[in-house]
Batch of 4 targets.
Target 1
Amino acid sequence: MRIGFFPPFVHGTGQATGMRRRSFLGLVGGAAGAAAILRSRRAEAAFGTFPSDALQAQLPVGMRAKNVLEIFLYGGLSPWETLYCVPTYGTPLDPMYPNQQSYTFKSASDAMIATCGNTGVTPSSLGNDALGMPVQLGPFAAKLSARTDVVQRLRVVVQKHNLEPHEAAVPQALTGRPVGQPTAAGLGAHVQRARIDADTASNTMRSAPYSYMFATGGISSDNVAAAAAAGAHPGYARPLLIKTDNAAGFTSLLSRPTVAKRSEQDALVKAYVDQYQQRLTWPSQGRVRSPRTDDLAVAFQTTTNVDAIAALLKTDSGGDLFANIAGNACAVSSGKDIPFIGLNAAVHLLTHPAAPASYVCVSDTGIEEASGGGGYDTHTANAHDTAMNFDNMLQALLAKINGPSETDPTKLNLSDTMIILNTEFGRTPVAQGGDGRNHHPYGYATAFIGGPITGTTIAGAIGPDGTAAGMNYATPAQNRMAALLALGIWPFAQEAFAVSDVPGATAELAAALSTIQFVLGRTL
């Protein structure tokens, strides 16, 4: 394995002893060490900087999000009972599409509403979609509907693509790129690169990462590992990846237990790295480009700053940030609620007083896995598993968002944090087998909460046949671009996105303004 290359889930055995030191270097990207590399490139524009002819598309500072929490609903969330419900579609008397969408498993869904303790909650209206149809949150989003303060900062976005397998759809949802493209990078890599470049331009630097990814064991490596991919970015852009269900295996390595004399070894490795850097340097013209050498320098510098990273991965009282949390949702109990643990750690990092994260992605595989794996791959038991896992996620998330009268600094403030509920695709509007739904990327829903989002709105439309109507949808790439624009990061670069990623756009400025208007609901 080459240093700086990210091997998806190299410690996939789930055992602490399964991760070697070289694997550790591959997992720990970060801010530390990037400054020395970037100082020799001051003439280059920092990644994410808005060009002078595109400032019109830059959100005002007061409108931007300071950081992003992304919750990846792994498996493919059924929108009909959660984020996109048109009560007049799919009724038993519908002449063309009877017993579809929210009516496919109506009796089972009603039973789960009671089981989850959500009886009597009125679903929140999202307004009319692009077809003029009234849309509301589904019955399994009752806990979200009950938080009117959060719903007032909610925008549901209709999305569409044509990839049905998880192995292709998950990386595209997380990177905005189809499988196989060398530029495919997770949102965290774009964010970390932009933040580090900005720090370097202002002669500041910190040891802690800006981006984190909390994944879960049991998920195949060609899926959620894409969230930590660096693509064409330098190695220092790579987010810090931690397997939530085996965090002890990672945190134990931060103490570097196999190194008897840390200072002596670090001095020796530094001498070797410096020596090699000198061999790549022309006396009067500077150092030649060598991405792999850059990655080596970053990996080495990061190992010398592990104490700073270890300090971040502790609670305010010095305890284990990934300590076990039991969960209970819809009459299902778990002694170890992995999504809850991940969200708890994510909020801690996003609200850290000294080194707040700019981006954290949490993979939600449910309090219990669905039949197809993950939390939402409901090939059977769609009503039960979707209700249980979506309710569990909402419990954990909403408990960590300040209410109207709260000012708790350890909770999320929606004026600072934008939350993205993302998923690789939706589920079919009709049944698969007796009580399940199949994969359906042709019309599904994601959600943006807080940051620049104001009001309760919906973007796009899904028609009565269950597919996105006309061009009234966003692509996975636009989802990623919108998050960057919300953070004040310009998304167009050879390492990121192109004009062609926005349907109908012919210039970068128009593509940015179109994405801001459609996905974020803002007109500049």
Target 2
Amino acid sequence: MAEGKGRVRTWDVARPRGVAWRPDTRLIGDAREALERWFATDTAAGRLLPWLPVCFGIGIVIYFAAEHEPALWGGVPLAGVLAVITYIARARPIAFPLLIGVTAAAAGFAIATVKTARVAHPILQHSAWNVPLSGFIEVREQREKTDRIVVRVHSIEGRLRDAPDRVRLSVKKRMAPPVGTFVQVNTRLNPPLRPLRPGGYDFSRDLYFQRIGATGFVTGAIRIAEPPVPPSAWVRYATTIAQMRGVIDTRIRAALSGDEAAIASALLTGTRDAISTPVNDALFISGLGHVLSISGYHMAVVAGVVFFAVRALLALVPLLAMRYPIKKWAALAALLAALYYLLLSGAEVATQRSFIMTAIILLGVMIDRAALTLRNLALAALAVLIFLPEAVVHPSFQMSFAATMALVAAYERGIPWMQAGADTPRGARIALWGGREIATMVIVSLAAGCATMPYVGYHFHRLGPYGVIANVLAMPIVSVLVMPAGLLAIVAIPFGLDEALWRLMGFGIDWMIWVAQFVAGLPGAVGRIVAFGAGPLLLCTAGLLLLCLLRSPLRWCGALIIAAASLWAFRAPLPDVYIGNRGDVVAVRGASGKLSVMRTANGDTFPVREWLAADADARTVNDASLKDGVSCDEIGCVSRLRDGAVVALPFAAEAFEEDCRRAALVVSQRTAPPSCAATAIDRTVWRQTGAAALHRAGTGWKRVVAYPPGYDRPWAHAIAPRGEGAATPTSAPRDATPRTEDLSADD
């Protein structure tokens, strides 16, 4: 001990004085050994396979992030060269897996490039009135207010650049002819809808891969005519499937009515557009909206019901059960049933993806492989991305595979833990009362709900805090009563014994609707969230992949990454100004912190609905408070920001003089004068960049646009000067023009 100035100090006897502290080498060695052991666990044989579709998907995401279309001669040779290098390096234990990942990413990039080139078709670049066209109806959709048809164009008139091959048209309710009909109509055509805000969903990209080059609506009557050419094989196939769907839909509506019939038809035929808005909103708010979209769940139920029914029937014959692989026969029957369900439901992209995944699982059963594994999920994801690379940016794909991945991970790690005490007296009592099944359903709902939450928040700007309650109450009835009754009813149609089964299905649907409305009415059921960018979503996806795919304690790094992504998402800044993609509607954040809206006489309300959702604002587009702080006269409107700066929307040319002098921002459908002192977003700007979001930065602006300068993709070419097709409309006794208020944003 040593004393000095009244203080007592103890010398460190563990090391000599003047020697710096050194870390404990044993701890470092133990940590290194643990990391090596964990790394070996996560890279063991077969453990890297689930990462193959991840790398493949990264390549596709990079493709869609490009600002101009990549050349075919770039991506395809690159993938080939990398494949050769990977083969040469196959003996290198570290380089080989890394090269496989890089090659998979290059292959994903190349596949997406090839798919885009393969589906290339003309896209309308300007709006056109009174355009006569004729063609075969390939798709017919029933909706709540209007119906939709997709027409394969045989002939089209008018001064149109890039006349489309297929168009989607809205018509008055119950006036759409059946699939396969050759029609002649006058139309108003529009280019496919572009994003309503920066970072919003790109409808034009979605329609491009559906080979739809224009949207719009019918003006006047729909004239049915004799086709000048025989229908194609695809039209004949679509007609046959539509007739089968029509028979089922007719039988459903003969036994059920209203939302019961609409939901039953949605579950079995995929025609989900006739559900009333209140019920549809309640289903999505409660977290049951996934039931309406034919996805992996529906495929699993159909395949599962057929599998167990066929296997049970075959097991009744002892000779078959003892001598033949009836399990494989049942799997084959389930696969055929899933294929029929795919065709019956319209074979949409989401349904195709679900069928591929179900087929791989059933094929695994046929070759004596475990059905529900991450390996099979990886093979299904890879197959989907090869055939449908555009699915990677679709919310349905993201939510479906995120939920399934979480379910498989929970099944592999959570269910064995629950079954560990199944043989104890307490475990037996719990099983007797169905406690284990309830706990399993809660775990499954929590896993799927938490896994899909980032994607629901990103695409739809809302969360379902009571989703677990709704799914626990409703999904057992849907799985045990609704879907089996519907499948049995389809089988019973030829025998005329289906009505009682439809009514039984209706009872289950009534319960599901009641649960949805009950949960949607709970306090705080509508969990709104401010829109955030792709960065937090990608980071959260990375965390989810680590959490679900890794087996070692390293997987908990994924939870930390998800937490960081959540903080990033919740800190997303709110724009001070939104501008529509046609310069006809502007939203300004005023002193109250809420948006006020200015729009021209013909300005759309569709962007306003999207902006309010992205702002986590519960108001509707008709709310009177949206006009607070807005002053309008016959030549324009003005509103003020929180800092008092003026934003102007001039209607007439004479308004520019004052607006350019007094306002900080001028938005117009016209061309602003070159001498305008204010920041101007006029037709020369928004026609090139689309919708915009502006953030106030001092006395200037930070602008984020839907399409940055130089952006040029097949579904979003630079907008050409406006031209209107001209033709003379023909009068007719029955007008099929839908009302303007019945049209939706992408018509």
Target 3
Amino acid sequence: MPLALTDLLSPDAPVQGELRVSVPIQAWPRLAAAVLEPEGSVNVKVKVAPLPGAGSSAVTTVVGRLSACLPLRCQRCLETVWVEMDQELNLAVTAEGGEQAVPDQMEAWPLLAGPVSLGELLEDELLLALPLVPMHADPAECGELLAKLESLRGNDGPVRSENPFAALKNLKR
């Protein structure tokens, strides 16, 4: 059964099916705000199904993969760095307090504020997977700003700068 990003995940009304789609980054406003250019798309391949043998507590599994190439700001040179995202999903969506029914190999996702749409859950997973400090893998890939900083370095390594308190030396009596 096909799924949609708008399908609600709730223990009260479990959904199941498979979703294979390419979703534009602009469809996810929080992700679009986190990237430099909200162009491109995220490839989504997920299966949603009830957890077999979960007993009285309803647990819905979300298993699959999210992949994308996202433009982020390099924190070394402040230029665009393209980050390959390949996020594996192995989630178990439960009602609050139902985490005990989740197998060890799965990550529990308790619904604290009621049902969540599949799209919101996937966007949250992408945001959590973004690097904290995106940088080019090789400093040589960084642009003009890094080259300028390197030219200011002396032979001893640190960036040369004048002591901001040097002018106070002349005021000494």
Target 4
Amino acid sequence: MRDRLQTLFDWVGRAGMVFLAFAVLYLALGVWAANGALRIAALIAMLAAGVWLSVGLLRRATGPVLWRLRNRLLVTYLFIAALPILLVAGLAGLSIDLLVRQLAVYMVTSQLDRRIETLDSFTQSVVRTDPVSRTPVMTTSLDLFYRDRFPGIEILLREGAQQIRYPEDATDISSPAPLVGWRPTSGVMVRDGKFFLWSYAKTPTGDVTVMAPLTREFLGGLVENLGQVDIGEERTSAQENVAEEAGDIALPGAPLPPAKFRFDWDVRWFANLRVDDWNHPGKNDEELFIAVRSRFSAVLLQVFKHKDKAQDYLVLLLIAGFGIFVVVEVVSVVIGIGIARTITGAVHRLYEGTQRVIAGDFSHRIHVSGKDQLAELGLSFNRMTEHLEKLLVVAKEKERLESEIEIAREVQGQLFPHEIPELRTLRIKAACQPARLVSGDYYDFQMVGDSEVALAIADVAGKGISAALLMAALQSSLRIQLQMPVEVLAGGGSDHIGAGVSTSRLVSNLNRQLHSTTSAEKYATFFLAVYDESSSTLTYTNAGHLAPMLVRDGAVELLDVNGTVVGAFPFSEYDESRVQLRSGDLLVCYTDGVTEPENEYGEMFGEERLMELLLRNSQRPEEDIIQLVLDSVRQWTGSEELQDDMTLLLARRV
């Protein structure tokens, strides 16, 4: 049950809940306050919430339909073009309908006005006639000209005390003569609930009253073949019930004309005419209600029954205008459909292209036609997929290279020493942080015999794979030499037995091997030292490497440089130096990745800062010193990304 309510809430949303709340409030107020202002306010709020809810439901229902661009364009065209045309057509149809209805009533009322004018003209002619011949002229004119046009017409002529009525058998006006107070007038008059056309005029010695009954039959005959006409006194509900009376109720009088075509609809309208009250001279507060029922074709036939060239031209003009409108509309629809198909086709091709790209088909190209913005968009898509295809090849190659570099990094990691020689008088620690996945820096330490250990550090020119390969060659060459007999390492021959390892000879051999096996631009700075535990003597050869620092008694001493870099020149010669290590001495070997990184102002970290850092922390453990130096360099550059490989090798005499 709870899930169903949650589903209902998700569908109708807050608008539905608000609508439901106001609906319940409206129904509840209908019981306790049916006519209260609060219930009216609740009804207004409920209607507003209903509109809100309807709009939300409509948007949700049409959302899937409007997902496609074609449907959105159709809806757009509907609101921009079709809907205004429909509104204009509806307004024009409504205007024509109202105009035809008003014309139908106008035809009846205008003919009624003409009859009233005719009746008044007859009355005035009687007044202007000589009193002697007034009566015969009156009766003769009435019989000849007015009896057929005014069925039931009656006349009352008063001359002094004499009254003349015609026809003599008239019954409608045999009632008393007009009351005193009437002024000359003409129009419609009501007497005893009956309506008459009448005209009243005064003579020098009396007056003339002409009256004709106003019946449905008389009104129906005013306009031939128009339709049905009804009359009656105005009632409060008369105009409100016009639609009901004009429904299936047939008006008396003339028959309704037959329909000329299928959509020849009924025309029903009404009019109000002011009428004089017989019993109240000068008062015309009463109104005559006239209802007309006809057909659209009958009204038009009455309008155009007198044909002439102007009407023919008007009809032709209307037909031509309608034809032009239809042609323009058809052409507009065709052009609009063509443009819409161009837009939707281009977007559909782009959509299919994106789906192919999502599926991994970067070789797909969409068909492009035209020279508009959509065509440019299609060309841009093709260029994008072409570049993506190239980038994919590059990415695969990069992935392959990264995989190979990862393998090289693992291999290089195996080249660094894994075990630190354990000596009674010397502690060794080293660390290397490459700027890339593989490093061109190199450090090593290896036992030579039982009481000597070789220490080495190097910086290969360049970075990346090439530097790592040279570093591997350097490491393998050095280790091969260190595994030779001690007599050979000392220089060979019986004269050198017991003299110790010759670092200068090792470096010279190493230089010649690197030069012969590598290209001319490949070289490395190299520092090699051999520590003899029995004598605490450090014998070393520095081949172009940064001078190692010896921290002793609160000061820093720089060791010698004994020659140029290895691998550059085959004829290079190297010397060797010796230093006696005392207890507490700290030997620090490093590469340029420690001293040469620059900060944001282009200033290098430098050897002086490294010396100060070592002096302040020389008594700390070797691991802490290495980490402190690496962190200080990173803090100096202000970046986690290394500018160069950083390598440190520390040896402390204990």
